[in-house]
């Protein structure tokens, strides 16, 4: 912004001033005033007052055109925006942060609206009726409460400000009365120069008044100041001291303005320049004619140079915003790629979901973009997120459909197994059940909620058949009492084992011998429970997993049951490994040499080692089948 040239009229001082040019006065008193002639109402206007009017209009223009760069809250999440609002509400001087509070409120409303829109989109994507959608957001109440509290504090502040303005108004009116009394009712011997200085100082220190009162109040003050000057008959000595004092003020202001040219923070320089123009208008006028235009031109030139730096600030901001736009567009392009994958499987979507969250966070952290492109950029970002969610949901809907088809096939196998589990046509049914087991393995996943149930039903039907088959074919050769005696001896031998060298091999031998022994009498079945309990204790003592034992003589059902247990444990371990890796991802420095993460890495390594061992065991079981 440029400042227009000042063109004050050059008027001569009145005749009384000319006659007093050579007068030497140390102290201006009311007695001296009485000896001079008071100028009539038709005398020329004081030139210094005209200067004040010209320069005031210039500085007001400067004051109005200075802008403040807004803070950027677009990278804040809803939770962070509400926290910032709460911080402002709790400040004693909360009224000073109304602009920031309103910007945060708009950001919070924007975030709430976006989240409700996303939830509604997902809700409708799932086929739900729109009229049943609940658009209430859990943070809406907190936002309303913060706005309500802040408004109450603002109202309280405005009321106190009105009272303060009224107090300041009364004080300024009192100062004007004192000024008026200086040229109407001053007692003889009063030091008018000292008194007018005190009046001016009091006026400068008086607080602010309401804007509606300021203009009339200010005009009233300068009117009486003019009358006071006229009363002094424009005393040359007084004017010279006044001009010298104001010239010194101007020189200080110009010096400070020059220093602002080197200020690195452009916005700070602009703000202080505005304050300097206010000082110029209120405290640095009038000055002698020969310095009036010269000092103003110098100050105006420096002001223009500072305002030229404002264009530098805007250029930097525009460059940064353009750079942010390019980065955000790159994020959007990557999101588009993830929304239209070439190879679609469950693993891809799990990795894609994680990457989308990273890209979303990266997008929100980036700063402002050019205002004219901001809305379109945000719309593109929201749309590509919706496209990704739609593609992901479609995949899992189709996956669910295939799982339901698999469930139907497995239910058919269960029905066939249950229909034939009591049959004794061994030549026909034994191959049938083996075929059923092979077909079961070929069928893919079923819905997780049904997986355990269908497996238990199928296993029960198979176990029932093979149990009947073994009982019918081995009943004559089973000596159950002798079996109990042999198992009792193995149990006692197992109890004596410690963790000495070779204990693991002895445990494996005992377990294999145990598997080779047939059934025991029904009233002695508790020996199996006792054996399993003792086995677990010895395995724990020797720090070995049960599935790591090399077992022999297992029946088909026992192998199948063992494989199922191993699969379940593998799934649990995989879930634990993923959780531990996710926990490590939250740390900025997630290296192994970080002492805080030492235990976590050791635990993760142990889980992975155990997982690999179980996979090998499962492979061996399947290969053996």
TrEMBL record:
Region annotated Disordered sits at 1-62
The UniProt keywords, alphabetically, are: Coiled coil
Could you tell me the superkingdom of the organism this chain comes from?
Bacteria
Q: Name one Pfam family in it.
A: DUF349
Residue stretches of biased makeup (Low complexity): 1-50
Q: Where do the coiled-coil regions begin and end?
A: 549-617
Q: What is this protein called?
A: Uncharacterized protein DUF349
**Species of provenance:** Epilithonimonas xixisoli
